Amino acid sequence: MSELHKFIFDGLPVRGMLVRLTDSWREVLQRRAAANDAFPEPVRVLLGEMAAAGALMQSSIKFDGALVLQVYGDGPVKLAVVEVQSDLAFRVTAKVVGEVAPQAQVEAMLNVHGQGRCAITLDPKTRFPGQTPYQGVVSLHGDQREPLQKISEVLEHYMLQSEQLDTCLILAANDDTAAGLLIQRVPVEGVANLGRRNEDDIGLNEDYNRLAMLAATLTRDELLTLDADTLLRRLFWEESLRRFPPQTGEDGPRFACTCSRERVGRMLIGLGRPEVDDIIVEQSRVEIGCDFCGIKYHLDAVDVGELFTPTPQQAPGSAAIN
Ligand SMILES: [Zn+2]
Question: Which pTM does this prediction carry?
Answer without folding.
Answer: 0.89
